[in-house]
Amino acid sequence: MFHFLSCPYLFNLSLILQFSVVKGTNHFFLTSKRHKLECYNLKMVQAKRTHKISPIKQVLIALGSGLAAFLLLFMALNLAISLFFIGRIMPGVSMNGIPLSGMTVEEAASAITASYRFPDTGNILLVDGQNNWPVKPVQLGFYLDPLASANSAYGAGRRGGLLQVMLQRVNVFKQSVQVQPSFIFNQKTAIDALNNLALQINQPVQEAQISIQGTQVEVQNGQSGRVLDVAATLAVITHQIQTMQDGVVPLVVRQSEPIILSAEAQGELARAALSEPLTLTLPADGSGQTASFQIQPSELAPLLTFAKVENGSSSQYQIAVSQPLMAGWLNSMKDDLDTDPENARFIFNDDTRQLDLKEAAVIGRTLEVDQSIQAINQALQNGQHTAVLSFTFTNPPVTDQMTGAELGITELVMEYSTFFAGSSTERVQNIKTASEKFHGMLIPPGGILSMSDMLGDISLDNGYAEALIILGDQTIKGVGGGVCQVSTTLFRTALYAGFQIIERHPHAYRVGYYEQINSSGSHDTDLAGMDATVFVPLVDFKFKNDTPYWLLMETYISTSNHSLTWKFYSTKDGREVSVNSSGVSNIVEPPEPVYRENPELPQGTKKQVDWEVEGADVTITRTVTRNGEVLYSDNFFTRYEPWGDVWEYGPGTEIPTPTPSP
């Protein structure tokens, strides 16, 4: 019997019966505290009856009489035992083989204390796999309670209702009453002991880890989590101790598995990925040529990541590139990888009046970053070192097979030439480089041409040379000098073709090249005011193809004739153009020459770098009509600043003294 910090109850039953038997007579008396029964001589009663009793009734009467006699005898014996064992343990009572019959409670407690040493000497082996911990029951808070055990033995045959007590007394007569000892089980002590043990057993769940240091892949496998179930283990210990025998108690340990126990497979993939460069290939172009570039392992390593993915009922790491990092890396390459769609370029064959292909159309392509990242991830996961980038492709409006009839390009609608006699080799190179940008170019119906956009970066890398340019209030040497010969020629071609002029800017002063009328360099002042300057990207020239037909432009440069010719091919829509010049007016004389020292020139050397020109005002008017309707009426006003001669000289060179003003 266990008592969890409690004491047993003590029951006592007293049955007091009084009997009076008169010997030598035919009757007896049974007297209790409350009742008195009187019986008369049965023979006398029977003699007085006037009828016979059946044999069955006689049997029943006999049985009843016998049973009553037995009960009376049993009760008398029970009373005798109760009286005899007052204050002592009933006969036949023992505790796990220790006879306690006839002992007082104190005597029984002493006997039990001397006989039960299990709490101090018992051996309980707590086991967890290969580990075990031997403990004594007393270390788990298990103590014998001898007084409670003795009281429990004393209560045998005395506790319960009448029937229960009588049954117990039967066992007492049979000398077979076994009672269990009472123990105190301090569960707090056991829980404390198990909690201390849990410090050795418990371990947290650890997920497998994979990381990259430099280009080295490090893998740390996970471990299962283990937690000692104190409550369940306490129940098992309690059951074992109740047997009062040595035993082995398996500890109840709850185990939880990590989501990912091993990362070795993905670690090997990562090591393979970093063993050589990752090659990214581009789709083949129109000629079937492919291009590619590589990401070196040192560049790839910071981009790699390992995502947890579900695989049915389990999960695993999966090697991939970081979405934001790889997207940033690819986006930084888009300017080099993306191409805008470009129309095919043609030359109008004046003999056949058909279009001859000059340059094939460029299919536009746009890098699809997300799809490319998926392709890269797939290659990495398959252990491959090559991935094909993903693009979307866009056809230009005009492809190689299109005809002049489809585009509305059927005839020459305007041709204009300007001259540049006396230009330096560098200036001619720049004129040629810039004009080639427009050769064979198409402008769609309603399209606006921006020279600045078409020219792009004017630099030495793009084929331009250093030549004289106008910058602010001086003429200096700069990259692209002569490009304005191209913009001026285009302006005049569009002007006389009757197209809408969107944006035009004149030069700060009159430039002699733009007033030449032939290869010998002859001038016509009526050409003043018909120039256009471009300074990428700030100053632009724009015009609009305001017809329903495509416009084809061709440019031709003649170094022998010192000329640049611009041709427009399309379909005439009946417009007529009238252009008039006001001529120069408000003439302003040029200022005195300017002399500037140039340390690069030798002493005594003078070099003219700019030439004087008068300042003037000029207005160009244009009227464009079609079928009597005025489409455009334009006024292009220009005020040119006067410009003086500019000379450079070497250090120590004498220069003329300026003439004082009158």
Folded structure, characterized:
- The chain has 17 helices and 41 strands.
- The protein has 662 residues and is α+β, with helices and mostly antiparallel strands.
- The relative contact order is 0.06.
How many domains in all? 4
Question: Treating each run of at least 4 consecutive H or I residues as one helix, how many helices?
Answer: 17
Quote the distance from N terminus to C terminus: 140 Å
Structural class: alpha+beta
Name its key features:
41 strands; 30% strand; 4 domains; four-stranded antiparallel sheet; 662 residues; rod-shaped; 27% helix; alpha+beta; 17 helices; single chain; Ubiquitin-like (UB roll); disordered N terminus
Helices and strands, with pairings:
Layout: E1 2-3, E2 18-20, E3 29-31, E4 36-38, H1 42-48, H2 55-84, E5 93-95, E6 98-99, H3 105-115, H4 118-121, E7 124-128, E8 131-135, E9 142-144, H5 146-155, H6 162-173, E10 177-178, E11 183-185, H7 187-201, E12 209-213, E13 216-220, E14 225-228, H8 230-242, E15 247-250, E16 253-256, H9 264-273, E17 278-281, E18 292-295, H10 297-300, E19 304-311, E20 314-321, H11 323-331, H12 334-337, E21 345-349, E22 354-359, E23 364-367, H13 369-381, E24 386-388, E25 391-394, H14 404-407, E26 411-419, H15 425-436, E27 441-443, E28 448-450, H16 451-455, E29 466-471, E30 474-479, H17 483-497, E31 500-503, E32 542-544, E33 551-558, E34 563-570, E35 575-581, E36 585-588, E37 594-597, E38 606-610, E39 615-626, E40 629-640, E41 646-649
Parallel strand pairs: 1-11, 5-10, 7-15, 17-24, 37-41
Antiparallel strand pairs: 2-3, 3-4, 5-6, 7-8, 9-11, 12-13, 14-16, 17-18, 19-20, 21-22, 23-25, 26-34, 27-33, 28-32, 29-30, 31-32, 33-34, 35-39, 36-39, 38-41, 39-40
Helix pairs in contact: 3-5, 7-8, 15-17
